[in-house]
Amino acid sequence: MIVGTAGHIDHGKTALVKALTGVDGDRLKEEKARGITIDLGFAYLPLGDDLTLGFIDVPGHERFVHTMVAGASGIDIALLVVAADDGVMPQTLEHLAILDLLHIGRGLIALTKADLATPERLAEVSTQIREATAGTMLEGADILPVSSITGLGIDALRERLTAEVRALDERAADGRFRLAIDRVFTLSGIGVVVTGTVLSGVVQVKDQVLLTPSGLPARVRSLHAQNRPVERGRAGDRCALNLAGDGIAKDAIHRGDMVVDPFLHAPTDRIDARLHLLTGEPKPVGQWFPARLHHGAAEVGARIVLLEGEQLLPGHTADVQLVLSRPIVAAALDRFVLRDVSAQRTIGGGQFLDLRAPSRQRRTAERAAQRAALAIADPREAFAALLEAPPFAWDLLSFARDRALSAGRLDDIVAALSPVVFDLGEQRIAINRARWQGFVTSLIEYLHTFHATNPDLQGVGREKLRLALLPKLPVAAFALALQQADFAGHVVRDGAFVRLASHSLQLSPEREVLWQTIAPLLGGEVRFRPPRVRDIAGELGRPEQGIRDLLKFAARLGLADEVAHDHFFLRATMHEMALIAADLAAHAAGGRFTAAQFRDRLDNGRKVAIQILEFFDRQGVTLNHGTLRKIQARYLDLFGPAPGVIALHGRESSPVGRPDFKSG
Question: Which residue ranges does the record assign to the Tr-type G domain (predicted)?
Answer without folding.
Answer: 1-169
